[in-house]
Amino acid sequence: MSVITARQLARTFSTKRGRERSEVIAVAGVDLDVDEGEIVGFLGPNGAGKTTTLRMLTTLLKPTSGSAQVAGFDVATQASEVRRNIGYVSQSGSTSGDARAGEEVVDHGLLYGIPRAQAERRGRELFEQLELDGMWERAPKTLSGGQRRRLDIAMGLVHDPTLVFLDEPTTGLDPQARANLWMHISDLRQRLGSTVFLTTHYLDEADALCDRILVIDHGSIVASGTPEALKREVSGDLIELTVGSADDVAAARRVLSALGDTTIDQLVISVRTPTAGRELPGLIRALDAEGVVPEAVEVRRPTLDDVFLNLTGRSLREGA
Ligand SMILES: Nc1ncnc2c1ncn2[C@@H]1O[C@H](COP(=O)(O)OP(=O)(O)OP(=O)(O)O)[C@@H](O)[C@H]1O
Q1: Do domains 2-231 and 237-301 have the same CATH topology?
Q2: What CATH superfamily classification does 237-301 receive?
Q3: What is the pLDDT of residues 50-103, one digit of tens each?
Q4: Residue 51 Cα, ligand 1 centroid: separation in angstroms?
Q5: What pLDDT is stored for residue 272 in this prediction?
Q6: Domain ranges of the chain
Q7: Is the CB of residue 150 below 6 angstroms from any atom belonging to ligand 1?
Q8: Whole-model pTM?
Q9: Pocket test for ligand 1, best of 9, 12, 17, 24 (most atoms within 8 A of CB)
Q10: Residue 51 Cβ < 6 Å to ligand 1
Q11: Top CATH class, 2-231
């Protein structure tokens, strides 16, 4: 069952520079469907429209056009119902600084209309699960970056939402803290069957954590699929063959051309093929028949960055 549906969801901002007004199309018309229990990663370079989409889906921003249903309610006409049924952890975090960490979480629960005792019980449970033991009485500003991010997540989950939106949950965390948070997010789905929709810049995060990835670029979705399927369909494996001489380059190229378009960089000939593993034995035999003895053969599995590069001609790492 679909718990998030968007159709041609779009948002334009008008900005003023001096006397000139101009329009920025932040989100150009997004269609998406997310099923119950899925962990979906929303991936794209800086300025692609991730946060704007997320803010529309969480009712913090009105769409300019198009529609979206979240948890069974319309984001434009049933905003308070949507909010009651979701958890949202923003990029900047939601802690205010002065109150104790535990109080912040309980207050957040009260905001969602759950009784104090329940908010406290659930808050303490989350502190334990998110490895925040002993932090209940601490002021959030005295916590480390990773602990604060986990506190944000506890706040987003205190009312037991089955649908959670996370905006760049691990930005600014060290690799260990990131991996740790991935574990908690997966665990959440495992235990509660929650649906998680998260934005990220990190390819490895999308790869490790998400069942499905949506790639957005310039305000439009350019790809959707499991990390594996995207990599398989769009790029294929890269075979890189290094030979010992210029003569061998020509012969090796003839052999590799049977698999697809080759590129040559000095003594390295490359070709992309959907299933390199299956091709390799035949390739080696064909090279042998041509009298070419490779110096090295490398197979590189496609990365999500290759997917993005194929789709847009740019690397995700380069940003917008
Ligand atoms: N309030 C606003 N007024 C004007 N332009 C805006 C506003 N909010 C966002 N934009 C523009 O809309 C585009 C999309 O921004 P958005 O924050 O959604 O991207 P993003 O993918 O979340 O980027 P990042 O990864 O850097 O957070 C950008 O060009 C941004 O400058």
Answers
A1: no
A2: ACT domain (3.30.70.260)
A3: 999 999 999 999 999 999 999 999 999 999 999 889 988 887 766 666 789 999
A4: 7
A5: 87
A6: 2-231, 237-301
A7: no
A8: 0.80
A9: 24
A10: yes
A11: alpha beta
